[in-house]
Amino acid sequence: MLIYLRVLKESFNFALNALRNNKLRTFLSLVGVTIGIFSIIAVLAAVDSLKREIEGSISGLDNSTIIIMRFNFGPTDIPRWKWQQFPDVTYDEYQYLERNTPNIEAATFTLNVPNETIKYENNQVDNVPIGAVTDSYYNIEALQLNEGRFFNGSESNSGSMVVVLGDEIANQLFGGAANAIGKEVRIYGRKFRVIGVLEKEGAGLFGNSKDTSVWMPVNVVRRIYGDNNKSTFPQIVVKPQKGIDEAEFIAVLTQKLRIKRGLKPDEISNFFINQLQGFADFIDEITGSMNIIGLIISGFSLLVGGFGIANIMFVSVKERTNLIGIQKSLGAKNKFILFQFLFEAVILAVIGGLIGLFLVFIVSIIASQFTGDFNFVLSPWNMFIGTAISALIGLISGIIPAISASKLDPVEAIRTGM
Fold first, then answer.
1. Which GO terms describe its molecular function (predicted)?
2. How many CB atoms lie within 10 A of CB 239?
3. Cα within 13 Å of Cα(272), Cβ side
4. How many angstroms separate the CA atoms of 25 and 369, rounded?
5. Ramachandran region of residue 103, left (φ > 0), alpha (ψ -120 to 50) or beta?
6. Which of 77, 215, 249, 336 is the most exposed place for a label (fewest CB within 10 A)?
7. Sign of the alpha-carbon torsion through 73, 78, 82, 87
């Protein structure tokens, strides 16, 4: 064991000497490994950060949550021209499914409408996202209130002029959540009474956040936009009870809506039932493809880096032929020489890899400064992968030079090196 530690120490010293004595040659040899490791880890870190942000943005929703609408989350066998003609889901259909579908824990009807301006006296906030939902949305999204309450079923059904604010909106209009409750704000040119303020969440993916949004009963927005406005993009969101057979539940839900729409057995369903788990799987598939593409592109840099390491090791063997002959004449075995050069190759490659990791770390810090609350994360696992790949490249690149060095005849090596 001690002899291998000594070999490792000597190889490390040889590697450092190579860096010091042949700076340009070593730099050119390691630049491929550095760029390759930088590319691989940068891609892995970026994809991991993106995936983590997406998962965080939907963390309030259970993976079993179902979204019914005229669009599909992922690819579909139905031709584009056909599904583009599907009708939107309606509030009446939402009520029908909520009343007649068993095993529903909660269901909500939502509309997506353009951002609006919200005013209070002389204070005004522009471009505010409007959440037009029913009262059950509170349970489906697992919202957390800082002050007040969410609107109830009676207020939702009647379309009461009440509103729940995000934390940042409350701060900009009133200076804090406690000051907002009971005040009246103007949206759509109408007065709304503030009944609740959500807890601060922080910015989500692409800058969207509940902090900068407001929520009001969907029936208020229905009165303003009407039920035949295609731009409102209505959705029915259903959360099934825990422990039930999800496939059976979806089948029942599909059948109920088909009956409501009067579809014949030979007609296709003119709506899509999207499960959030399917969306999560779709995201995994996309991020997996991005990782593979990034690894393939980065592999070319690593290939160049590997040839660079092999080249510097062949030169190192040539320069130390005399020393190898002396070591062998003093009793050094072939495996001692072999491990000496292998360790040196691995150490050189790891140095290049560590430089690449350091560059990724610097880039991640800079990127986080320019992307707000989006966190570009360099995880310990990615750092381990980068170091391991570096070592593997060094091992593969150094194996042939190390074998050639270990097989040198001591007499010929001394004569050649003189």
1. transmembrane transporter activity
2. 20
3. 23
4. 36
5. left
6. 77
7. negative
Q: Of 49, 42, 6, whose CA–CA distance to 353 is shortest?
A: 42
Tally of CA atoms within 13 A in the half-sphere of 226 that contains its CB: 4
**Structural contact between residues 170 and 125, judged by C-beta atoms closer than 8 angstroms:** no
Alpha carbon 159 to chain centroid, angstroms: 38
Q: Output the tens digit of pLDDT for each of the chain's 418 residues.
A: 666 666 667 666 666 666 666 677 677 777 777 877 777 777 777 777 666 665 555 545 556 788 899 888 767 788 888 888 899 999 999 999 999 999 888 899 999 898 999 999 888 999 899 999 999 998 888 788 989 999 999 999 999 999 999 999 999 998 876 788 999 999 998 999 999 999 887 654 334 578 889 999 999 999 998 887 878 889 999 988 887 888 899 899 999 999 999 999 888 999 998 887 656 666 667 767 766 776 676 677 677 777 777 877 777 777 777 776 776 776 667 777 777 777 778 877 888 888 888 888 887 777 766 655 556 667 777 778 778 888 888 888 888 887 887 777 766 666 665 4
Cβ contacts of 4 within 8 Å, gap of 6 or more? 339
Query: DSSP letters of 88-137?
Result: PP-HHHHHHHHHH-TTEEEEEEEEE---EEEEETTEEEEEE-EEEE-TTH
Structure tokens at 295: 């690894």
208: closest CA among 112, 314, 309? 112
Which residue's entry shows tokens 């997506």? 112
Nearest-5° angle of CA 376, CA 382, CA 388?
155
Residue 273 near residue 76 (C-beta atoms within 8 A): no
246: tokens are 């999800």
Tokens of 170: 């409350």
